[in-house]
Every structure is written in structure tokens, then in C-alpha cells.
Amino acid sequence: AGAYDFAALQAKWLPVWDELEPFRAGRPGETKPRKYILDMFPYPSGDLHMGHAEAFGYGDTVARYWRHQGFDVLHPVGWDSFGLPAENAAIKRGIDPRAWTYENIEQQKRSFRQYAPSFDWSRELHTSDPEYYTWNQWLFLKLYEKGIAYRKAGLVNWCPNDQTVLANEQVVDGHCERCGYVVTKKALTQWYFRVTDYADRLLDDLNQLEGSWPSKVVTMQRNWIGRSSGADVEFEIEGRDERVTVFTTRPDTLYGATFMVVAPDSELAAELAAGASADVRTRFQDYLDSVRAESDIDRLSTERPKTGVFLDRYAVNPVNGERMPIWAADYVLADYGHGAIMAVPAHDQRDLDFARAFGLPVRVVVDTNAPVTGVIPVIQLDEQGDPILPEDLPAVDPASTGIALAGEGRLVNSGPLDGLSKSNAIRRVIELLEQRGLGRAAKNFRLRDWLISRQRYWGTPIPIIHCAECGEVPVPEADLPVRLPDAAGLDLKPKGSSPLGAAEDWANVACPTCGGAARRDSDTMDTFVDSSWYYLRYLNPNDDTKAFDTAEAEKWMPVDQYVGGVEHAILHLLYSRFITKVLFDLGYLSFTEPFTSLLNQGMVIMDGTKMSKSKGNLVEFASELGAHGADALRVTLAFAGPPEDDIDWADVSPVGAAKFLARAWRISGEVTSSPDVEWKTGDAALRRMTHRLLADAPSLVEAFKFNVVVARLMELVNATRKVIDSGAGPADAAVREASEVTAMILDLFAPYTAEDMWERLGYQPSVALVAWRKADPALLVEESVTAIVQVDGKVRDRLVVSPKISGEELEGLARASAGVARAIGEREIVNVIVRAPRIVNIATRA
Ligand code: ANZ
Ligand code: ZN
């Protein structure tokens, strides 16, 4: 039968699968229930890497599993092929980003074909094809009609190296996510999607995902959206007609607000400074210049010494009429809340630091020593270790200790609020403010609108035309797509404005409304727009009449299992959830969450460290694939541990995996019984092991315990080998049964080996479509033992019984045995000794 040769198996089965297309989903007339199993689509930079091998391996295990369970499984693949890396690589090498991108796609495709995830290749898509990005433009127009896409001028994150705008999410600790440069701010008019309108729903709907998404991801989404509740409070400003509104989470501390702070880079600060003396104006301007160079992270740090400028203006505290000096200071951000705060130094650490730095008054309004119901007080101990009663605690004075009193307590120095707990005081003060029209309950979010325009070439052109007469004019749907002009002749080097603007023939168009000379918007879309809805495009990727088919979405969506890296825990998932909700509101979808269940694979590391080229410890997908073959690689990844955990490549053994596969494969060639052999005649112990695996594997796979399933397969293969070598031999029906089940389950991890085993066992391809065998319940009862029944010292029967059988039960079975009854005949039983579960001794007398 030859030796196990993974390369030969790969060469043999790929063309067969191409011919059979066993993984084609949604064939006409198909009536099976459906599952949609999706991996995050790859970005085509270079070849696939080990992260892809892992994620796509796991996703494929799930897809194959559901096919065996009788589902019509949609498991598509495509490429997220627009984006900055392609453009940067192209600039560096002087080639067209298109050529670079599509060459990489071809390379990745070749690797994927070898690796053989069970993709429905007929649905392949590339986001950089006009056939795809037309629908990005369509989506943009729908959002524009609804006012969800809009343009505004503002300060944006700017990477001086990439010369492009970055979304907040792409700024990591003040640095560009892609190149590591320090990010600065730049004033630009940009396109945004109003994701903040969906903040509440994006947050509340996370409750539905709890349990089926990793809790870490749910928490990251929650924090990113960052909802806080409190109040908006309005302050009169001396010398200004309009009041200033501040957002506070602690309106209960309003009597302790002793000054106001505005963000130096807000319009309000500029206006207030403009109304002050020349001296103040100069000092403010100098301060503003220095603040502009700082990152938000630095500005919010509690570690840095506080800086600021007194604007020589005053606000009036609405509850006690006190004058509050107004300062500009960098720890207040322009784009959070209202860009201005009421400072309560006694109870807020940053306000206290600021007050102490500039000699501003500190007034305690919450007695944090006073007991509050529902709050467990921190009991302090004196030197003898005895508890100090709260009333005996010395009065703490934040002004001298420098520590703000952030805890719970009872209100003091607060007029009508005195004696109330925090929550009651919040309720009361909001009532008071509402009665006087000076405030109301309010929520605030950390989430910002999604900045979607980029001044780069390799992306979807924004379908807007700017006309001097008519202003912003959306490109009529019938004129889509707005094709990306050829890169030839364009200078792609970043310079702060889009390279598309230099494509004169492309940029100059007639205004769709008035027919006059107009220009196209030259920005391109953030590629997160492309990936925010691609899972819908897979449903009908070749339909050139619509973005996606609502009826198909009804059939397949939401995605049952999404698999991908935790690096997409915030952005991609948040944007996909947002677009799904928008499409729901527009009436295109009947559901509001796109991904029912989420699995994040861990990372492949080497010797405990993350791989990097510079460390020289890279595990290359291509070389591992070449050395061990797809099946051994996949089994290695599945066997390495829980999928969420990192895999240290130094700890795993693809060689061991290959040996296991060879062992399983050899057995399938040794089986001598025919497919219609009577299973019941087989070795009972081996049969029990086979059926227990059939019974256990489904819940193990559904809980992503792939490593346990592989371990159980290894155990089964070893047991099969024992029966062949030292038991009844290869003709035993149980050997065939075990080998068939091994092939079927191995299809989840090693499709080539499984398919070949299936053929050697006498069947037609494809094993991938074989229905999951039903476990025989009779074989699932716990381990059984053989009990011996003796009559007058002679063995008269052997009974297969549970090891937990009771003495009475065993005696009953013994007496009921035909052989035993025959041996006893007409004689009288004088004594029965039972040693459950092994022996029954019966003594008789004539
Ligand atoms: C008075 C106060 C008293 C506050 C107190 C806190 C404690 P989160 O929970 O993150 O939403 N704040 C409001 N706008 C701000 C801005 N633009 N830049 C910096 N800080 C700002 O924080 C809300 C609190 O952060 C608000 O409640 C406000 O300070 C501050 F004992 O108001 B607080
Ligand atoms: Zn016009």
C-alpha cells in the first residue's frame, strides 16, 4: 500500500475536490438547515502567515463539523485588499499598488489551496475590485441620505510620516499604529460616519453577545464606547450672554465647585480669552501653542504637573451664586463632554492637583467618614489593631493631604442636599436644576464619530462631487462606480492631500445637478468601511444589481461563528455592528448583530516571545507547510491547546502529528472486512471507545476543545492498532468501524488524510459530506465487567455487567441465566455467595 506521503495525497485530492465542489453552499433546492462560518478575511501583504493558518484551521474545523451534522454550510473567503500597506510597499518599490496587491492575493490563494480550508471558492471577493467597491459607494450614499455620513472641519489626528489622517482607534499611546510616529493634530475638513448616534444601542446590545463572545472583547467594546451618566449643568458667565454647559458625573458635588476649567483648544477658550486683557491674550496664546503639541494621553495623565492660564473671567455657580474663576488647562479635552468642566477639587484628584498648584479654594461637600447604607466602609485600625469608629476619625482635609475624597459619604456644606447620600443628592440636585432650567440628567460617551476619509490613493473614492453652485452633490447611484483612476502618472507619495486630486481628467466632472464645472471629492474611504459589511457581500458576490440580497441575508445571517484575531476586538467589530444596525434601520436587514458567536485565536510564538523578523525566530507558514504538509500543520495547531491560548512553536511537534496521521492512514489500508460487515461482531472494548468518541466529540467541538478531540482520536488509533496486532486482527469489524469513524472525525483537522482513508475503506469521496454516525447508546454505558457464575464449583455462565451492579441484581441475572438453570436442573439451591460485580457461587443439593 506504500508509505504515507502527504505531498502525494495533496496532489491527488485537490483536483478531485475541484471537480466535486463539495463545499459549495446554497445549491438550488437545498433544504438542509444552514450555518454561516466565517474567518476574518486576510489582508494580502506577502504570503499567509501562521496566524492565518491557526484562525483558518479552527474556522474550518467548525465548518466541516457542521457539514457532518447535516447543515448546508457557508464558508467563504475573500481579500481585504485596499489599504495603506499596499500603497507604502508600492511607493517603496516603485510599482503599482494594484499589481502588488493582486500578486499577493495569488500567492495567498496558492497557499490556501494547499492548506485546503473547505471554502466555497465561487464566492471569492476582493474589496479593491470595482465590483465590490461600487457597493461601498452605494453604502456611503445611503448613509449620506440619512445624514449619517457628513463632513465637518476639525482637528484630526495626523501622522506626519504617513502624511495621513488617523482615526482615534489608529492612535496607540499617542503614536501611529502603522509606523510608530508621534501623532499630531491638524485642521482638516473630513468625512465622518455618525457612529455616536448608535452609542447606546452598540452598548446595550453587547448584553446579547455575553457568553458567546469572549468576555474580554465585550469589555473592550464597552470601555471603548465608554458611557457615563450624570448631568449637564449650565453656568452664567459674567460678560457673556450665553451660558456655558459642563458635563459632570458628580452633580451632587456642585456646592463644592470652586472654579471652572475650559479646554485651551476649544472655541470657548479662544472666545473667553479674546474678551480679556492683552496680557491674558498673549499668555493664553503661548499656552495654546504648547498644548497643541501634546497627545491626549499626556493631557489626561494624573502624573504630570498641572499647567494652565487664568482667563480673568468668571462663571456663577447656579446653586449658591458664588463667583468661580475660569481657567484654561490642558487636562480638560476639547472634544469630550462640552470641553469645559466644573472643578471640584475636594473630590476630584486632577482638580485638587490643579487647585493646589494655583492656590484655588478647596471645599469638602461629601463627608466620606459618614456611614452610608449599601456601602461597606473601609475600617481603619489604630496602632493597637483596634478598629477606629468612623466618628472618631480625624477630619480629613484634601487641601493639606493632597488626596481627593473620591469615596461615598453624606453631603455637607451643600444647603438643601446636606445629609443625603450620593445617589439621592444626584437625584435631588438634578431636580433643582431642572426646575430652574439650569441643567438636566445627561449621558456622555467616550466614543467619537468615525472619521472615514483618507488622503491616500489605494481605497474607495468617496462618491461626492463638489460644485461651486450647488455645494456637495452625491454621485447619482446610476453613475456608480466612481472608478479609481490609474496609478500611472500619479505621485502616490503622501503630502497631506489625496493623490487623486492630481488626476485632472478624473477629478474634473460636470455637476450632476446644474451641469456646471465641478470636481470630485478626492479622498478615499477608510478600509474599515470595506470590512464593515463584507460578510453580506459573500451572500451574492456576483450580483451587479445590488450590494447584497435581503432574502439571502434572511437565510444565512447572522454569521453563526466568526473567527479572527483579538487585534480586531474593537474597531472592526464595532464598525460591523454599527453598519448592521444602520442597515437594519434602513430596512435591509431583520437583525441587529452580525456575529452570533466569536472565537479569537491566540498567537503563535517562539520560545515564549512574539515572533518577529528582527528576532530571527519567525515560524514561516510556507516553510512549515512545505516541510510537514497541510494536515500535519493543522493537527499540530489543533492539538497545541485551547485555541484562545498562545502556541509556543518550541513546544509542539508537527513531526509527531505527521506520525499520528501515518498511523491512522496505515490502518485504513489494513482493514480486510467489507463495508457491509456486521458491526455487532466486533471487539467490544474498541467499539465502546469508538462510540464514546462519536458521542463526546460534538460537544467538545462546539466548546472549541479541538485539542481534546485530537487526543481522543490518537487514543482510538492506538487502540485500533492493538486489536489488529494482538486481538482479533484486521478482519475484526470493530477495526473497520473505528477506522471509518477516525476518517470522518479526522476530516475536521486533516482533510487529505481523511479523504484518502475513506477511499481505502472502500468509499467514494467526499468524506466531508458523510453524516455524523450515531453513537449506539448500548455501547455508551460505563465500562462493563464480566461476572462469572459457578454452580457447584463449575463455571456455567459469563455475564457482561456494569461494574456498579448490586449483589441482588447480579444474583437475579445469574439465576435467570439459561446455562445456570440447566446446570441446577431439579436440584435444590442451598447456598448463594455473591461478590459483585465479579462472582456468583451457587451450591446445590440433590
Ligand atoms: C465634577 C466632578 C466632581 C467630576 C468629582 C468628577 C468627580 P467620565 O466618567 O470619564 O465620563 N470631565 C468632563 N468633561 C471633561 C473634559 N472635556 N476633559 C476632562 N475631564 C472632563 O468623566 C466625567 C468627569 O470628567 C466629569 O465629572 C468631569 O469632572 C470630568 F468629584 O465633574 B466631573
Ligand atoms: Zn452644481
UniProtKB/TrEMBL annotation:
One of its GO terms (cellular component) is cytosol. NCBIfam families: leuS_bact (TIGR00396). It catalyses: tRNA(Leu) + L-leucine + ATP = L-leucyl-tRNA(Leu) + AMP + diphosphate. It is found in: Cytoplasm. This is Leucine--tRNA ligase. A motif ('KMSKS' region) lies at residues 610-614. A motif ('HIGH' region) lies at residues 42-52. Pfam families: Anticodon_1, tRNA-synt_1, tRNA-synt_1_2, tRNA-synt_1g. Residues 684-806 form the Methionyl/Valyl/Leucyl/Isoleucyl-tRNA synthetase anticodon-binding domain. Belongs to the class-I aminoacyl-tRNA synthetase family. Keywords: Aminoacyl-tRNA synthetase, ATP-binding, Cytoplasm, Ligase, Nucleotide-binding, Protein biosynthesis. ATP binds at K613. It comes from Agromyces ramosus.
